[in-house]
Write a structure and sequence with these properties.
- The complex is a heterodimer of chains A (560) and B (579).
- By secondary structure, chain A is α/β, with parallel strands linked by helices.
- In chain A, 66% of the residues lie in helices and 10% in strands.
- A 6-stranded mixed β-sheet of chain A has the order 6-7-8-3-9-10, sandwiched between helices. A 4-stranded antiparallel β-sheet of chain A has the order 2-1-4-5, with helices on one face.
- In chain A, strand 9 and strand 10 form a beta hairpin.
- The longest helix of chain A is centred in the first third of the chain and has 48 residues.
- Chain A is elongated.
- Chain A starts with a helix and ends with a helix.
- In chain A, 51% of the residues are buried.
- Chain B has 579 residues and is α/β, with parallel strands linked by helices.
- In chain B, strand 9, helix 16 and strand 10 form a beta-alpha-beta unit.
- In chain B, helix 2 runs antiparallel to helix 4, helix 8 packs antiparallel against helix 10 and helix 18 crosses helix 19.
- The radius of gyration of chain B is 36 Å and the shape is elongated.
- The two termini of chain B are 53 Å apart.
- Classes of the chains: A alpha/beta (560), B alpha/beta (579).
- Chains A and B meet through helix 2, helix 3, helix 5, helix 7 and helix 8 of A and helix 3, helix 4, helix 5, helix 6 and helix 7 of B.
């Protein structure tokens, strides 16, 4: 947790000058709040009695009230501004680090987890300064209120403490009860959402069967149950609210009663009675302070999760420029978790297929070829230069990647295809040419706004998405294209067309293709046959075909 | 998602909220009645304290003082019961509101998706559900605080008037000034709050994109570009956060002035007040009215309007913006029963937008009743569009599609069945899923399952009455369920749109053979070319070139087709292709 605390401390510091203003405003406000009841009580006594010092106490009250107003206003302003600044700084750092650390992070945390850490958790850490200061601001009047009460009468703080214990018990019971009800509520909510998601996945069936009203009823079938749990939650809420809400007024009445009795005995003034009643209300603020402590605890645990993210080291890029070359790729005794001792040379401009059963390390080899991951041992070289010494921009300009499930990023289809092309270099013609080579130009042109169609508005099958990902790789990689199962969702006819384009139209670039289909291997100049994390052979398909083990690779794949 | 704006959206939001509040007059009346009870201490507190001291403790009559305090305690207890009833009445208003929002969301999303032929992803559904919850909570908060403020204000003013009417002169003007100042700052506050919420959502979605597409971003070397984009969003959020902090500070100032200036004024006027019959205890009572009742209620009011109302408006605008604008593509004519299941396509053109290149242009096709047609061609060439046109899910831009002489879109849904690639299996029993398009006896259902090769699956699932959940089935198993369903349907025209793509070739052959033997007209959009070999006739679609013929015709006349068929059996030819 120490890294987490350091992160919280850093975040507080990064609020800048606003943090100091916040602290001053809040602490000052708390002190003023604490002094005010006493001053008001005294002022009242003197003013009513017409005694000396009336103007002094009245001025004191006015100054304290002004102090309350100024401190509250400043505190709110500074809290908002420092929080905005601190969480923006934190977010910028996280985004940069996530991008620098790269896909290695996804392997460690998983997509959803990563989103939660970089998003929600960062937000929680960003709220830490405000939570810490607010908790402090609540504690000062609470503790001060107890002390002031004790000074007025030693029995009063005891009554208050008993009341606070009562509030805490009610809140704890409420928390237990609501956790149960909220769980039920969320479960039914999730049920409705899954039903809707299911129906949306089958929307073409529903549209064809014209059963939309029926499906709407099916989706909403758990609604009565949802309302049942919802009402249970409200009832628990109402019960706890009543109990917790009664404690403070009743405590105040007890204090007023005790104070009134002492007033009758002439041991207390009316002003002191007023002050005592106010201190009870201030002291009862403890439960709110405890809520703030919970916030700090959440911020700390969120900071823990964020610092785990920041602790993953980012691979460093080199500085060497890529010399002219044909795109020759060389693996020298490369090992990574799941691959061991791979050595081979892939000639520049060739088509090389990587085959092997599922789990034999094909995707890992593909990731190593363009430094999406670094090997544990050994070196990968492109035209004689080790990848880790290459300048980042040079490396990405040279190598294009296409994936089985590409994630398309950008506003329009043009943006998505030109993602790998440096700004300015990717004009519309280049994008269209890449799309044509990936056999997706016709699809794009049939969309409502063609290449300018907004990504979210483009209906897309898995195969169309794959071909757009392929177009993106073709537009980017000048020397080497790595296609990691990038045509698996295409139907036979399209796969054949894409295959033809890959082998004939892209001459001059090295193509490394991992695939399950026999035709891919048959079309390639060279086949790398991976078996259980080892390179079993590197030879043309025709030569390997004589080996029954090799033929079995494809039969196993066809069957699955 | 677009920024919620525009007067039309605001009017719609106001109408929906108003309808929710007045939807159940009896509940609203109950809410008002209990609110009076809940606000009773706000009326009594100052009065009771003043009397307890003046008539009781200060007069040396402790019993009278205690009696006043006891009365106040009783009123507090009764008010607590009232507060409980208020919460329940608010719940009775917002729970149906949530239900209606959910009904609206589910209906709209399904209708839009059905019209577009595709749905938004699971994340969009999750976002919509979240917005519904936020809207519900925000509405509850707004009703609670606005109501509480109004009732407390009236109670406090009444209490002060009873205590000493002159106090009103000291309290009302500064309080009103603070209230007006706050109300003046409200539009700016609402604007800033909304800007902040939207900026926050944009940042969250950008972060989500980065995390989800990290591999692709790095592979494209687009880190700097994406980081710059994210920075722009983060900077915008920071600016929005600061702007919000500024107006919130103004709001706090208004609140503090309205709440505290009366306190100072009453104190300053204390000598004058006591000179005219007021006692010290009455001044304490007045201070209690201010600090115990008015300030907390005002606080809640400011918070409720400044935050919850904005949250409500943003969420509702979101939920309503995809509202009733969706139009139904289908003509409203009554469905007609076709004579037979022959399909006639005449001069059909279809494009997915006004300026888009047509997917299908000038297509003519005759599929006689009882025919078995396979459609072959590269993806994106319009095969699925043709299937949707024949099934009447889409309406052609030009030309006509007739099923048994009736326009396809008007043909009775029971006369044809379309099974798409993504099979639909919902949570329910196996039987419910299989009888979705038409039922039968157990024997008929089991026979249908046997015919398409799904017997083993039905058995594994535990029989017809076992529960089934689509998400735990494989894609191929889901397709088997959809195939049994289509087989059982009373339809004479069956369109299989790559409906067997996740089955292995042998299972696919068995299912297609079953449909060929079932009778009626069969149109198969082929995923594998092997489907064409089993069909009576083949439609080859390749851009502008559309050819119809038997397998033998096409092998002889269409080079693409010949190539494909050779290609389909790579084990035989793949060898020679290497060199």
């Amino acid at each position: 947790m120490r890294a987490a605390d350091r992160l919280v401390a850093r975040t507080v510091r990064h609020g800048g000058p606003w943090s100091a203003v916040l602290a001053a405003g809040v602490v000052g406000g708390a002190v003023v709040q604490l002094l005010l009841p006493y001053a008001l009580g005294r002022a009242l006594d003197v003013l009513v009695a017409g005694a000396a010092g009336a103007s002094f106490w009245l001025t004191a009250c006015a100054v304290l009230v002004a102090g309350v107003i100024v401190c509250e206003t400043l505190g709110v302003w500074a809290g908002g501004a420092s929080g905005a600044r601190a969480s923006a700084r934190l977010r910028r750092g996280i985004v940069r680090h996530v991008l620098d650390a790269g896909p290695g992070l996804t392997r460690r945390f998983g997509d959803g987890d990563l989103v939660a850490r970089a998003g929600m958790n960062a937000e929680e850490v960003g709220r830490a300064p405000d939570a810490i200061v607010t908790a402090a601001a609540l504690l000062i009047p609470t503790v001060g209120g107890l002390v002031a009460l004790a000074l007025i009468d030693p029995w009063l703080p005891l009554a208050l403490a008993a009341g606070l214990v009562l509030i805490l018990l009610v809140l704890r019971g409420f928390l237990r009860e609501t956790t149960q009800f909220a769980g039920d509520y969320q479960r039914v909510q999730g049920d409705i959402a899954s039903r809707l998601t299911d129906a949306l996945a089958g929307i073409r069936t529903i549209a064809a069967a014209r059963t939309v009203p029926l499906e709407a009823r099916r989706v909403l079938a758990p609604l009565p149950e949802l309302r049942l749990h919802g009402m249970s939650l409200w009832r628990a809420n109402a019960r706890a609210g009543v109990r917790a809400g009664l404690v403070v007024p009743l405590l105040e009445l007890v204090v007023l009663g005790v104070g009134g009795w002492r007033l009758a005995a002439g041991e207390m003034s009316v002003g002191e009675l007023y002050a005592a009643a106010r201190y009870v209300v201030l002291g009862a603020g403890l439960s709110a302070a405890l809520g703030q402590v919970g916030q700090i605890a959440r911020a700390r645990s969120a900071a823990g999760r964020v610092s785990e993210l920041l602790a993953v080291p980012a691979p460093r890029a080199g500085t060497r420029a890529l010399p002219p070359g044909s795109g020759t790729l060389e693996f020298r005794d490369v090992a990574a978790p799941g691959l061991s001792g791979v050595s081979c040379t892939i000639p520049g401009g060739s088509v090389t297929a990587v085959v092997g059963r599922s789990g034999s390390g094909k995707s890992l080899l593909a990731a190593l070829a363009g430094r999406l991951v670094d090997p544990e041992r050994g070196t990968v070289l492109l035209d004689g230069v080790p990848l880790h010494t290459l300048d980042r921009a040079d490396l990405r300009r040279a190598v294009g990647y296409a994936f089985e499930r590409p994630v398309l990023i950008g506003r329009t289809l043009t943006d998505a295809v030109a993602l790998g092309v440096p700004h300015g270099a990717g004009d519309g013609a280049a994008v269209r040419e890449a799309a044509r080579l990936a056999c997706v130009d016709g699809f794009v042109r049939r969309l409502p706004d063609g290449y300018a169609t907004v990504l979210e508005d483009a209906p897309m099958s898995g195969g169309e998405r794959q071909r757009l990902g392929l177009a993106r790789a073709v537009a980017q990689g000048e020397r080497l294209l790595v296609l990691d199962d990038a045509t698996s969702s295409l139907d036979t006819v399209t796969e054949q067309q894409v295959g033809k384009a890959l082998t004939t139209d892209l001459r001059g670039r090295t193509r490394l293709i991992t695939a399950h289909r026999l035709t891919t291997a048959a079309r390639a100049d060279l086949v790398l046959w991976l078996d259980d994390g080892r390179l079993r052979a590197a030879a043309p398909h025709a030569d390997l075909w004589r080996d029954p083990d090799y033929r079995a690779v494809f039969r196993a794949e066809e069957a699955s | 998602m677009t920024a919620p704006s525009g007067a039309g959206a605001a009017t719609r939001v106001r109408r929906v909220v108003w309808e929710a509040v007045v939807a159940r007059p009896s509940v609203t009346a109950r809410l008002m009645a209990w609110s009076v009870v809940e606000a009773a201490p706000a009326f009594l507190i100052g009065l009771a304290i003043a009397r307890a001291v003046d008539d009781g403790f200060a007069a040396g009559r402790v019993d009278v003082g205690a009696a006043w305090l006891g009365a106040l305690a009783c009123v507090w207890v009764v008010a607590a019961i009232g507060a409980r009833q208020v919460v329940l009445a608010v719940a009775a208003l917002v729970e149906p509101f949530r239900d209606r929002l959910l009904e609206r969301v589910a209906g709209t999303v399904l209708r839009d998706a059905a019209a577009a032929g595709r749905g938004p992803g699971a994340s969009a559904v999750a976002r919509a559900t979240l917005q519904v919850e936020l809207a519900r909570d925000a509405l509850a908060a707004v009703i609670t605080v606005v109501r509480s403020f109004a009732f407390t204000l009236v109670s406090v003013l009444l209490g002060l008037a009873v205590l000493d009417p002159r106090m009103l002169m000291l309290v009302v003007p500064p309080f009103l000034a603070g209230l007006v100042l706050f109300l003046l700052s409200l539009p700016a506050l609402a604007r800033r709050q909304r800007a902040y919420l939207l900026a926050d959502e944009r940042t969250a979605s950008t972060t989500g994109t980065i995390a989800g597409g990290l591999r692709d971003i790095v592979a494209c070397g687009a880190e700097d570009r994406v980081a710059a984009d994210a920075r722009a969003h983060i900077d915008a959020q920071e600016a929005a956060g600061r702007g919000l902090a500024r107006v919130t500070a103004v709001r706090t100032l208004a609140l503090s002035l309205g709440a505290w200036v009366p306190v100072v004024l009453i104190l300053a006027a204390a000598p004058w007040l006591t000179g005219h019959g007021a006692t010290a205890a009455m001044i304490i009572g007045a201070l209690a009215y201010l600090t115990q009742s008015l300030v907390p209620a005002f606080n809640g009011f400011v918070e409720g309007l400044g935050v919850s109302a904005v949250r409500l408006a943003v969420s509702l605008t979101r939920l309503l913006e995809s509202g009733p604008t969706a139009h139904d593509a289908r003509p409203a004519d009554a469905p007609a029963a076709p004579e037979a299941a022959a399909v006639t396509v005449r001069g059909v053109r279809f494009a997915y937008g006004e300026f888009a290149a047509p997917v299908i242009d000038g297509l003519d096709l005759d599929v006689p009743s009882g025919d078995h047609l396979a459609v072959v061609g590269p993806s994106g060439i319009g095969k699925s569009t043709l299937a949707a046109l024949i099934a009447g899910v889409l309406v052609p831009d030009a030309g006509e599609v007739l099923v048994g002489g009736v326009p396809a879109a008007r043909a009775d849904a029971a006369t044809r069945v379309l099974i798409p690639q993504e099979a639909y299996v919902f949570r329910g029993t196996v039987r419910e899923n299989l009888e979705y398009l038409g039922g039968g006896t157990d024997a008929a259902i089991l026979a249908a399952a046997d015919a398409v090769g799904a017997s083993a699956l039905v058995e594994r699932l535990g029989g017809l009455d076992a529960a089934v959940d689509g998400s735990v089935l494989s894609a191929g198993e889901r397709q088997l369920v959809a195939l049994v369903r289509a087989y059982l349907a009373p339809a004479d025209l069956v369109v299989l749109d790559e409906a067997t793509c996740h089955l292995d070739p042998a299972a696919e052959a068995r299912a297609e053979a079953a449909f060929a033997a079932r009778g009626g007209t069969l149109v198969v959009i082929a995923h594998r070319v092997s489907s064409a070999l089993r069909a009576r006739r083949v439609l080859l679609m390749d851009g502008t070139d559309v050819r119809l013929g038997t397998h033998a015709d096409l092998v002889a006349t269409a080079p693409l087709y010949a190539d494909l068929v050779g290609h389909w059996n790579p084990l035989a030819r793949g060898h020679e292709r290497v060199r």
